[in-house]
From TrEMBL:
Assembly description: Homodimer.
One Pfam family named in its UniProt record: Radical_SAM
PROSITE patterns with a match to the protein in the record: RADICAL_SAM
Keywords noted in UniProt: 2Fe-2S, 4Fe-4S, Biotin biosynthesis, Iron, Iron-sulfur, Metal-binding, S-adenosyl-L-methionine, Transferase
Basic and acidic residues bias locations: 328-355
Binding site for [4Fe-4S] cluster: 54, 58, 61
InterPro entries tied to this protein: Aldolase_TIM (IPR013785), BATS_dom (IPR010722), Biotin_synth/BioAB (IPR002684), Biotin_synthase (IPR024177), Elp3/MiaA/NifB-like_rSAM (IPR006638), rSAM (IPR007197), rSAM_sf (IPR058240)
Pathway: Cofactor biosynthesis; biotin biosynthesis; biotin from 7,8-diaminononanoate: step 2/2
EC number: 2.8.1.6
Domain Radical SAM core: 39-267
Protein name: Biotin synthase
Domain of life of the native organism: Bacteria
Taxonomic classification: Bacteria, Pseudomonadati, Bacteroidota, Flavobacteriia, Flavobacteriales
Record's catalysed reaction(s): (4R,5S)-dethiobiotin + (sulfur carrier)-SH + 2 reduced [2Fe-2S]-[ferredoxin] + 2 S-adenosyl-L-methionine = (sulfur carrier)-H + biotin + 2 5'-deoxyadenosine + 2 L-methionine + 2 oxidized [2Fe-2S]-[ferredoxin]
Length: 362
């Protein structure tokens, strides 16, 4: 078994992606079993707490004010509305709520204070709470951490080379800076991307290089298939073949073994068999609910039926804990909950070694 690598190259990742499919699946599934329970998949709910009217120009996004789409804009939701939706999500099996606001960046003031209150409220429901609010300063990341935020999502979307073909209103470095600001707080990092935007295989690999060479690697990586929305510059893009999603998930799993790989947008276009292959290849999270921010998503009952057919169980909240900073913290987090330390599986021993390595480095 190998230590976690932070020096993947684009060429190596392209070679993995292109492996004969059966070999790729076998390797990815082997890594997946070393670090995760292959029969558990986290169910998360994405709530659009402020919809539309965004000043940015992300070419895939129906919420950009400059594109003419059917999206109905909404002001920031109230804390009680968010709480009601979170309770509904929990009752239908979600253990994580991700709140998205169509902002370029977070601005200090009453709206941010309201979001902090939403974070505190969901935290009390014993659910993982995640936000995606645009660019963030170090101080804002710390305030979110104090409110109990578990994860912050800020996708790299694609490779640095292809980024300028997708978005012109901000730079790749702005994305990396926000991720760095999140990393300076105790909040875990969620960052991934979208395939099917006209990028080359090298761009998919380039994005995985950018994510996997972060040290530590993101705790969560969403892999989205573009949902081409009428009125956006990408409205005519061809649907992503399921084989590309399977290969992308498997490659992500191999280069980021500990990460929660999230099978995100585009599931409505995938068969159950296709999704099952993605789970086998290492995806261990889905988003539930009939909408993913603004685009369609399978109904929660359909997902539960799929779980039943595949013998999958929804993963409980906090089952994957944030990366502890020391080996002692890692051990005590289980002991303090009255649980046996879980360093019995080989993957956990590797995780412990990784923490020791980080500790020695700092
Ligand atoms: S993806 Fe986010 S930042 Fe980009 S246009 Fe949509 S809401 Fe705005």
């Amino acid at each position: 078994m190998k230590e976690i690598r932070h020096n993947w190259t684009k060429e190596e990742i392209v070679d993995i992606y292109r492996m004969p499919l059966m070999e790729l699946l076998y390797r990815a599934a082997t890594v997946h079993r070393e670090y995760h329970d292959p029969n558990k998949v986290q169910v998360s709910t994405l709530l659009s707490i402020k919809t539309g009217g965004c000043p940015e120009d992300c070419g895939y996004c129906p919420q950009a004010a400059r594109y003419h789409t059917d999206i109905e804009g909404n002001d920031l939701m109230s804390v009680s509305q968010v709480k009601a939706q979170a309770l509904r999500a929990k009752a239908s099996g979600s253990s994580r709520v991700c709140m998205g606001a169509a902002w370029r960046n977070v601005k200090d003031g009453p709206e941010f204070d309201q979001v902090l209150e939403m974070v505190r409220t969901i935290n009390k429901l014993d659910m993982e709470v995640c936000c995606t609010l645009g660019m963030l300063t170090e101080n804002q990341a710390k305030r979110l951490a104090e409110a109990g935020l578990y994860a912050y999502n800020h996708n790299l979307d694609t490779s640095e080379d292809y980024y300028k073909d997708v978005i012109s209103t901000r730079a790749y470095k702005d994305r990396l800076d926000t991720i760095d600001n999140v990393r300076k707080s105790n909040v875990t990092v969620c960052s991934g991307g979208i395939i099917g935007m006209g990028e080359k295989l090298e761009d998919r690999a380039g994005m995985l290089v950018a994510l996997s060479t972060l040290d530590p690697q993101p705790e969560s990586v969403p892999i989205n298939a573009l949902v081409a929305v009428e009125g956006t510059p990408m409205e005519d893009m061809e649907p992503v073949p399921i084989w590309d999603m399977i290969r992308m998930v498997a490659t992500t799993r191999i280069v980021m073994p500990r990460t929660q790989v999230r099978l995100s947008a585009g599931r409505t276009g995938m068969s159950r068999e296709g999704q099952a292959m993605c789970f086998f290849a290492g995806a261990n999270s889905i988003f539930a609910g009939d909408k993913l921010l603004t685009t369609p998503n399978p109904d929660v009952n359909e997902d539960m039926e799929m779980f039943r057919l595949l013998g999958l169980e929804p993963q409980a909240a906090f089952e994957k804990m944030p990366q502890p900073k020391t080996v002692e913290q890692a051990d005590s987090k289980f002991e303090s909950k009255g649980e046996k330390p879980k360093w019995t599986r080989p993957g956990h021993q590797i995780e412990r070694n990784e923490i020791a390595r980080q500790q020695a480095k700092s």
